[in-house]
Amino acid sequence: MADFYKPFFIAKWIFIGHNISILGDFSYVASKKVVMKSSRLTEIVLLTICRGVLLLFSLLPLRFGIALAEGVAWLYFILDRKHRRIARINLGIAFPELSAPEKTRLARKSFQNMAEMLVLVSRFPKLVNARRLERLVRYSGLDEYLRCKAAGRPVLMLTAHLGCWELLSFAHAVFQRPLHFLYRPLDFTGMDDLLMKYRTLSGNKPIPKKEALRKVLRALGQGEDVGILIDQNVQASEGVFVDFFSRKACWTFGIAAMAMRGNAVVIPAFLVPDPARRGGYLIRSYPSIPIQKTEDYEADILENTTRFARAIETAIREYPDRWLWAHRRWKTRPPDDPADIYADV
């Protein structure tokens, strides 16, 4: 993820990387190698550019800003052979029946989805106003969440790098209540401060990843909500292998452990284009995922993680052009299938 010289480098830094936590971890805004080598002046310049980009998109009419950002993303898609190749490999795994042109179209739309999200994030200061936000975002399937809160139950909002995950957590806090989200602090402190400012505008509360288990369980114990991005690759020591588009992928086991120990209701939710309103967005909540709790802890972890993966796959199949295909999702391999899928990238 270190080829930052290409035209769409700011959006890539912000929205591509591994372990982007709820909702958008931004942990690869600048890679560690780049940050270690960069001078203070370089950091100031990059931070100024990022602020300028966010300001520009916040001032432009929304639809025009999105069209402009998508145009730049289209150019970046053409130039970035590496991530274009990764996206096509992933699409070949998930949708082998699709033609090459259709896979290319989905990969390009995935890049443009991130550009659209950048524009939406830039407008967060204006969207803190609930009435203004209501003109842009609405809920679908909120009843179960409201019943959980009326009963005092904590909720784990399960989501993925699909649609605008940043606006999902932001809008949920404006419309309902703030939630906790996990994050990894950046080495680039100026960028970390800037991004945290946007991510907490609606009252959402960050939890550093190093303190995740203890603080998440505390929040759940107090009946509060926690948002979790679960869809990206993890190391074998941090996860379990379950089927994902009919191929084994390594998923973190921590979310299942949190749900089981915290007695949480797990509700998958995603923010996607609203089919009923052109230019609008829909917070699509799916039915809660039953949590298995027996005397066999390891079997429960595997089964619950499998259920989570199945929920994510269902959403991706419904909105394939909105998922982050440029991530090496199947990188960590099980012992019985050790071949590196991305060896030629």
Summed up:
This protein has 345 residues and is α/β, with parallel strands linked by helices.
The overall pLDDT average reads 89
How many domains would you count in the coordinates? Answer: 1
Approximately how much beta-strand content do the residues carry?
A: 5-15%
Described by strand count, sense and barrel closure, the largest sheet is:
7 strands, mixed
End-to-end separation: 12 Å
* Tally of alpha and pi helices: 14
Strand order in the largest sheet = 1-9-8-2-5-3-4
SS-based structural class? Answer: alpha/beta
As residue ranges, the low-confidence spans are 1-38
Rg result:
19 Å
How would you characterize the overall build of this protein?
With 345 residues, the chain is of the alpha/beta class. 49% of the residues lie in helices and 14% in strands. The chain contains 14 helices and 9 strands. The protein has a 7-stranded mixed sheet, with helices on both faces. A two-stranded antiparallel sheet has the order 6-7. Helix 3 crosses helix 6 (100-122), helix 5 (81-94) packs across helix 6 (100-122) and helix 12 runs parallel beside helix 13 (254-262). The radius of gyration is 19 Å and the shape is globular.
Structural descriptors:
14 helices, about 350 residues, two-stranded antiparallel ribbon, about 50% helix, 9 strands, alpha/beta, disordered N terminus, about 15% strand
Sequence-ordered SSE layout with sheet pairings:
Elements: H1 9-15, H2 32-37, H3 40-59, H4 62-79, H5 81-94, H6 100-122, H7 124-127, H8 130-134, E1 137-140, H9 143-150, E2 155-159, H10 165-175, E3 180-183, H11 189-199, E4 205-208, H12 212-221, E5 225-229, E6 239-244, E7 247-252, H13 254-262, E8 265-273, E9 281-285, H14 297-318
Parallel strand pairs: 1-9, 2-5, 2-8, 3-4, 3-5
Antiparallel strand pairs: 6-7, 8-9
